[in-house]
Specification:
Belongs to the glycosyltransferase group 1 family. The chain is α/β, with parallel strands linked by helices. The protein is 44% helix and 13% strand. α3 packs across α19 and α5 packs across α6 (139-148).
């Protein structure tokens, strides 16, 4: 029987549907992907989208989808032919997820969390197991899966202090949802303690799946070739968020970038000349901001060279990494990377990819989304922390001028990434074990709507 709180929540999410549609229309103006298959978000699916016995993986956005890709690869290694149903909440997540599909797989939007939309989703697809990536816990979906005895797990789970406080404020809704999950596999012990405090059944601390991602060897090879033609060391602000690009540009201008260089004086150290001897680069986190950041660079008096339209930049230009899926290339090119999301109160970004590429990292003060990974990288000597962007530029200049120290950080970064692997194998084994022990779920779709699957199932 549905609780009073869940019934109230269902009424609120149902009433909010017109607002959701309006938000999607607005988002689609800048990101056309939000206009794709809108009705799927409300539980209305194409007639061809059928099947049963799915291993359903939900990855809300880009970062979660990349983690899901690592898990899916391992699931296929352990159980060849496992049928994957992949869902997302954002356009960038769906675009990235399309690259993971193989024949027999299916990709749709996650339904908005209303009783009717969730029921239509589960009726149509009847997953054998559901895997939510990292943070996505929707009360209606959790309750519906529990009622139908569909195992629903939270994998690569993380919960920072800020999110815990938000969940506790809505404890009447959050606690039953976390408690109803079949299993939770946390990234760190700290995440585990916070999740347990909300009633989650944490079955293991498996580490971060992103450690198991191998850098794209083709991109690393391309970076190596490209570096041979770069006349200066390169420093990149990687996966920057709104506001950080302006901080970066202000710091460069503070040190004299873009202004005429002072005359050289024997024995006199000139930081302006140091700044001019470095190739500076920015890679925004979100593709929809590429044009905005290009305009911002020019508005601050700097010429801009875009990866999408230009070759190697000239000394005066700031290079803009306006491509999707090339972070391995950018980290491979960089002598030092400044971690985006950590210089404003965003909680940082995933720094594991940079470490795996052997790129020394400079972290700002805000890394609460990846707190333990950040501390481990600092302890390993793979990263340094500063308190602001001006200090970050100073630290970057010190590193590019000290080949011995930078070389030690390169090796420390690679070792840090390699010694923390193994989460994918553990998580995939746990998912498959639960799926094999679960009772097959009969579909409630229209009679005759589902045909016998030719692909291997989890049965």
């Amino acid at each position: 029987m549905r609780s009073l709180s869940l019934r109230l929540y269902g009424v609120l999410t149902s009433l909010a549907q017109p607002l959701v549609r309006r938000k999607l229309r607005k988002r689609a103006v800048a990101e056309p992907g939000y206009a794709v298959a809108v009705e799927e978000r409300f539980g209305q699916y194409d007639a061809a989208a059928v099947g049963t016995g799915w291993c359903w993986v939900h990855a809300v956005s880009l970062g979660e989808t990349r983690a899901a890709g690592i898990l899916i690869t391992e699931l296929r290694r352990q159980h060849p032919g496992v049928p994957i149903l992949l869902t997302h909440g954002t356009a960038t997540g769906r675009e990235e997820g399309a690259k993971l599909l193989e024949p027999g797989d299916l990709q749709v939007w996650q339904p908005w969390d209303t009783p009717k939309a969730v029921a239509r989703f589960l009726d149509r697809f009847s997953p054998r197991i559901g895997v939510l990536m990292e943070t996505e816990v929707w009360p209606e979906m959790v309750a519906a899966c529990a009622q139908r005895r569909i195992p629903l797990v939270l994998a690569n789970a993380r919960l920072n202090e800020r999110s815990l406080a938000s969940a506790e404020r809505l404890g009447w809704l959050a606690r039953p949802a976390y408690a109803s999950l079949t299993a939770v596999w946390a990234q760190t012990e700290a995440d585990s303690h916070r999740l347990v405090s909300l009633g989650a059944k944490v079955e293991g601390v498996y580490g971060n799946l992103k450690f198991d991602a191998a850098p794209d060897p083709r991109q690393l090879a391309a970076a190596s070739q490209f570096r041979a033609h770069l006349p200066r060391p390169l420093v990149v602000l990687a996966s920057s968020r709104d506001g950080e690009e302006q901080l970066f540009l202000d710091a460069l201008k503070h040190f004299g970038a873009g202004a005429p260089l002072p005359p050289e004086q024997p024995g006199v150290h000139s930081i302006a000349r140091q700044v001019a001897s470095v190739q500076w680069m920015m890679v925004p986190r979100h593709p929809q901001r590429f044009d905005e950041v290009a305009a911002l660079i020019e508005a601050n008096g700097f010429p801009v060279a875009r990866r999408s339209t230009a070759g190697a930049p000239t000394q005066e230009e700031i290079w803009l990494g306006d491509s999707v899926g090339e972070m391995t290339l950018y980290y491979g090119l960089a002598d030092v990377a400044l971690l985006g999301g950590s210089f404003e109160a965003f909680g940082g970004q995933n720094l594991i990819e940079g470490a795996a590429c052997g790129c020394p990292m400079i972290l700002g003060p805000s890394t609460f989304n990846f707190a333990e990974v950040a501390e481990l990288s600092l302890a390993a000597g793979a990263a340094v922390r500063v308190q602001g962007m001006t200090q970050a530029i100073t630290a970057a200049l010190a590193l590019v001028s000290d080949a011995t120290r930078r070389g030690a950080m390169v090796e420390a970064a690679k070792a840090f990434a390699s010694t923390n692997r193994g989460a994918a194998q553990r998580t995939a084994a746990a998912v498959l074990a639960l799926a094999e022990s679960a009772e097959p779920v009969a579909s409630a779709a229209e009679p005759g709507a589902l045909e016998e699957r030719a692909e291997p199932s989890l049965d």
